[in-house]
Amino acid sequence: MNTNTGELGEVIVEFVRNGTYLKCSAVHVATGREVSAMGSANDPRGVERVAIAKLRRALAMTSG
Fold this sequence. Notes:
31% of the residues lie in helices and 42% in strands. It is built from 1 helix and 4 strands. The protein has one helix at residues 44-63; strands at residues 2-4, 10-18, 21-28, 34-40. It has a 4-stranded antiparallel sheet with strand order 1-2-3-4, with helices on one face.
């Protein structure tokens, strides 16, 4: 799923379920930077919010 997250620009988000756990990977299209987060399969939007927050932090660390 492609999403536009405002100031981040285009982000590709992928979900993979493994039993009761859900892995969400988020890739920043412009830089290719990828992060992932894991959490409960009952809260996919929460896991996605964590992955997007991690992506923001990762991009902030690389930009200085």
